[in-house]
Amino acid sequence: MQPNEKLLSTRAKGTVDQPITFLMKATLDNPENISLAAGFVDQESLPADFTRDIVADLFEDHEASRSALQYGLTSGLAPIRKWVARRIESDGFANPIDPDRVVIGSGSQQLLFITTDCLCDRGDIVIVEDPTYFVYLGVLNNIGARAMGIPTDESGMLAEPLKERLEALEKSGEIDRLKILYLQTYYQNPMGTNISWERREELWEVVNHFHKKGHDFLVMEDAAYRDLRFAGEDIPFMAKLDKSGERIAIYGTFSKAFAPGMRSGWACLPEWLAPHVLRQKGNHDFGSSNLTQTIVQHALEKGHYQQQVENLQHVYRAKAEGMLKGIKEFFPSDVKVNNPQGGLYVWCELPADCPTGHDSALFKAALRNKVLYVPSVYCYCQEEGIEKPDSSMRLTYAMMPPDIVHEGLRRLGKAIEESRESISSAG
Amino acid sequence: MQPNEKLLSTRAKGTVDQPITFLMKATLDNPENISLAAGFVDQESLPADFTRDIVADLFEDHEASRSALQYGLTSGLAPIRKWVARRIESDGFANPIDPDRVVIGSGSQQLLFITTDCLCDRGDIVIVEDPTYFVYLGVLNNIGARAMGIPTDESGMLAEPLKERLEALEKSGEIDRLKILYLQTYYQNPMGTNISWERREELWEVVNHFHKKGHDFLVMEDAAYRDLRFAGEDIPFMAKLDKSGERIAIYGTFSKAFAPGMRSGWACLPEWLAPHVLRQKGNHDFGSSNLTQTIVQHALEKGHYQQQVENLQHVYRAKAEGMLKGIKEFFPSDVKVNNPQGGLYVWCELPADCPTGHDSALFKAALRNKVLYVPSVYCYCQEEGIEKPDSSMRLTYAMMPPDIVHEGLRRLGKAIEESRESISSAG
After folding, report:
1. Which residues does chain A have with pLDDT short of 70?
2. Contact B4/A138, CB-based, under 8 Å?
3. What pTM was estimated for this model as a whole?
4. Per-residue CA distances from A2 to A13, A117, B91, B116 (Å)
């Protein structure tokens, strides 16, 4: 322990580095590395022209520009909150959404963190998809909550194993420590899976079954990638099934389909939960940047956001196709690949004897070849006594131009080959 | 308890509303109210022209503009972090400051919160000035830390009572739960006090005395208002006394002397602490807005920030003088007022039989007269068995134009009169 480290709180002592920090730093610090890892968005299509025009217009207006540079409300700008409420309702919700249920955060990430902190004491339980968004696993580690993973198929988390897990928790007397079921309902990170409407209904039925028995928990519907759909049909929010509005919270963001540099995301929270999240946010920063929120507001009101969403459909469809083609060209044929309909990720499953983790021959070969990927081990929650697959990887086609992605895949194909040779020669 | 509130964490259950939320909302929601309460900055002098020009220039540059709209590093933009390090060194620090000790946050508020969360478990102790920044008291409430207040005079926290308090903690065996000494070293919120250099030395001596006995804790030097100096001499950071760099963290912000809407602040942390704060920030939001940071970076590099600091000296000197004049005109002569040399606040002490709290005749009379102030009771930490003064108020001259401040003081003077009449007629 460093001098003074005895001063640290239990929370700080127990918190490990987010793997994303390492991967982001490796990308930004070393321009020679091709990152198929970091979840940045496409650089070229970022809405620079829209933003320039919005800001130029905004600063024509004396009052409005000064308001944008001043403090604002902790909950965020009212017009964005209303837009979000109307957007959610437009899925055919049974009841109108009160904009007071909507909070603007510094990305949806901040609201995922705060919600979890508002519900979980150390040792409380959160159920996640296995694999899931590894940054959220970091949040759980930080807060000291226990993550439990439920297997998935191509339609999302499996309802039957969820039910079995809940029954096991009921039996062991731990079910009242279960606080959250965390689901990424659209183009899941890392697998790119969309939860089908039928699966949403099945999962909701399981949730309801336990609710009726007096065991309640919050469903956190992370819909960050919804607006990055480039194929297939649009599916309503799972929260539509929750007629009460009290048991599913929705999370969305303007980072993915507009600009991460705005750090603007939102949550639509149950009425009972919103004041607690707001209080916590007040303590964190008393409100996100008024300037970037004002830009987002104008982008929504002027239709720039909607236009950008349409642009991105073409951009990401082409980039996803390019990546799938490159994988076909450079990867061994026994690598299984999904076919995403939206989002930023391709999930590659290698044969079980090809581990991809940080210490694996493959990861080292990839670093040697100057290419980065996200090892699947980051994305599975580690549970004692349960073995998790460790031979997959998350790749993203999002940030880099197509020719660089192509070159990255060539390097990665080479790294796979090299690591297999080293494994077979070691064997 | 609401339906589902049993799901809340200990932290959420124990957290009360920040008084600032009520005051900010009352200001923004009801334009008829004149707020001498909310700590907003002067609206008219906000750097709209600088910001417009910076953004226009930035968006001429294809690469730079896209980087500003992309994700960045959790720690913040390197050029700002270097600027902060050089700025601190320029106070004549014995050793150079490593920019890796500097973290950019969503205002310094976020970094005050995260640092405190990294050090304090529930029940741990934080010593503060009495009165202190009430938002920080909210942070302590949120985290479940116990605040203990040390009296102050016109040169800052008194060293002797601090020593006595530490001795008492030593005796009671609680001193190892003391994690933080929180000091606002410049134009303190709410009293406007500057801690004199001699007092900084005295306080540091007390800290050292206990350090030598093996009782260590972090000094958090909140220097948010330093750049809003409009009279008197500039005093070096107290952290200059900490040759090791291991025991004083400094907090600063671009909110007060540039624009709160940027939500950009910084902390210069001891080396042993920085990685823990960074991890936590990674979990909260993996970095503050790259766009607003880029604007701040350009403002620093082009000298706009320094120019704005100079402008504000004139603005706030005039506004402070205006407020003092108005107080003289409208308040009873037995109201004691300080004479601030910087910052945003004037502190008024009424006679002890004139309470100013939320339920007082005066607060109600003020609301009736459509004027808001911060009651002193918000600013004193509440400790069992220790009576705290409750007949002062914090006023700010910052946000409103001088004529509105003048009218606000007229209303407040009337409210003081009315409340005294009601008290004397009730007696």
Report:
1. 1-3, 20, 423, 426-427
2. no
3. 0.96
4. 12, 28, 28, 18
